[in-house]
Each structure stands twice: as C-alpha cells, then as structure tokens.
Amino acid sequence: MRKLQYNSPVILSFFLVSLLALVLGYLTNGWTTLHLFSVYRAPLDDPFTYARFLGHVLGHADIDHFLGNMLLLLVVGPPLEEKYGSIMLLTGIGLTALASGLLQFICFPGVMLLGASGIVFMLIMLASLSGMKTGQIPLTLILVALLYLSREAYSILFVRDEVANFMHIIGGVCGTGFGFLVAKKRSGF
Fold first, then answer.
1. What is residue 72's predicted lDDT score, i.e. its pLDDT?
2. In terms of Cα–Cα distance, which of 103, 87, 16, 90 is closest to 53?
3. Residue 64 φ/ψ, nearest 5 degrees
4. How many Å apart are CA 160 and CA 151, to the nearest integer?
C-alpha cells in the first residue's frame, strides 16, 4: 500500500493555511479576512498592520479566487521547491509578500489587497528561469515576461475590475530578481 507524501512542505503548508484563512473568513463573516488576511492603509500603532504586510497573501475573497490561485500554486510550486529548496522558496515567498504588502500600503491607500496571485506570478517567472545557464538569458523568460507584462498592462489600461494587476507585476519582478540572485549565488559570481 502506498502512503501519502507531504512532498512540498512550503507549498502544501501555504495551501493549507490559505484554506484555513478562507474557512475562517466564511465562519467570521469576513472579519478575519479583513483584519488578518488583507493589506490596506491602517494606523501604524495597530499591531495587525504589520501582520497584514505578510498575511494578505493567505487571504482570498471567495472560493473562486482561492481556487484560481491555488491550482497554479500547486502545479508550479512543488518543482520549484524541489529545485531551490524549502528555505529558499519560503524566503522568496516572504520577500514577495512583504514587497507587495508594503507597496500596497504606501501607493494605494484607499484600496485593499488580498490573495496569492503575486506569489503565483513570482513562481511563474521563477519557473521561466529553469535551466538557465551562466551568462545566458532563457528565451522562455523573455517570452513569459513579454506575454505576462502585455496582459497586465492591457488590464491596467483597459479593464476595470478588482484585480491588482500592479501587484502581479511586482510578483513577477520579485520572481525574476530572486531567480537571478539565486543563480548568481550558485554560480559564484
């Protein structure tokens, strides 16, 4: 008989904590989602303000938002965790969450941000760097960046919805930067 394997601890834990945040949001009629799992301009003397700089990536508006992010996270994340290691991937997720949380807090004071799409886009850009050789830029990175940035720019300019396209771009920039930094560190440059 085969046993279940917790094969990707960071990604699976992220999924489970996000699922818990979603359930708590439903059980508290949105209180936990608003106060713990969303980032927005709030007083700096509120201790939850600082928790939200990271915690917003765990919150989701509803089941559709959750599934849209988690399906991609569960597909793209485990191979990256295997390639980069759990600590390195958790560091990338934490830095991306912090960067998007702080930028949202500073640049968009009247808008609330929640969800893992910035993390997902970080992972997508990081995955596009797979197989990168020293001194070379993968064509997959250029194509993914071009398609991705074009779609996000179009959405920013012409689509009026509640999607935080700027934070998707921040996630993509974090993934690309993180990938290049790790590659540089591993190659000794």
1. 94
2. 103
3. -65, -45
4. 14
